[in-house]
Description:
Elements: E1 4-9, H1 20-29, E2 34-37, H2 46-56, E3 59-60, E4 63-70, E5 73-80, H3 91-116, H4 124-127, H5 138-147, H6 154-163, E6 171-172, H7 173-182, E7 186-189, H8 204-213, E8 218-222, H9 228-241, E9 244-247, E10 262-263, H10 268-273
Parallel strand pairs: 1-2, 2-3, 4-6, 7-8, 8-9
Antiparallel strand pairs: 1-10, 4-5, 5-7
Amino acid sequence: MDTLIDLHLHTTCSDGHWTPPALFDQLAERGVTIASVTDHDRLDHLPEILALGAERGITVIPGVEITARWRETAAHILCYAPLGAGFTSDALRSVVDGIRSTMLANTTMIYQTLRQRGYDFPRQDEILADQSGQPIRAGDVARLLLESGHVTTPAQAMALIYEAGYLQATAPLGEVVEVARASGAVSLLAHPGRGGGEIHRYDQWEIEALLGEIPLDGIEVHYPAHTEEQIAVYMGLARRHDLLISAGSDSHGPRQRLPVAYPAARASALLSRLGLDAC
């Protein structure tokens, strides 16, 4: 039987709905034995994640999804560290902490602006109970607007947030790749075929141009929203540029998408690079 993997997962430690224990319960139920929890722009919770994996018999690859920018376009970058060694310097952590600091400052400004405009959130402590009642990211303010009855759709909430001064916190893509390598990690372009909202869909020519400027290590080829045609294009890019291939669900919780149990063979070179012989 194939070893099963999912290398792109999120928890309540960033913008996911899974608590870490609930996510590992779900992975165990699906037979996934190798996973990476790639919470957005966060590394400080990795000891908890690694300990949960050890308790549940699931091998955890240290990972993070970093919000980067290339040519003023958003690029989500999956960074994976070798098993055992982990991230070997503070270089990547410094970039991640900078993104989170900028995000928190912008979120605080948006929240205060809306309060000054008369928006009240009487159930704030309940709505944001999983983070001590405090908004950390723009999506938290959107939840407050929705669940307090100020708007009826997520689109209306985000329109208010943008109007109040929302700016996406990012780091330059070249810097992300550089500090990832300095930390012993590899960097892969996440969900290139996905689009919508702040997520940019990367067409083939854009990926070719990006690779001509920045030495990414790989690409997330296998992803639930990718079509067979897109997968074929990304596989061709990987062959031509000798890129590592990853496979992940991008599961944020049961309200969005459940984990996907991918055969480890789909990411065999990546797993080998990270110290695993899973195939």
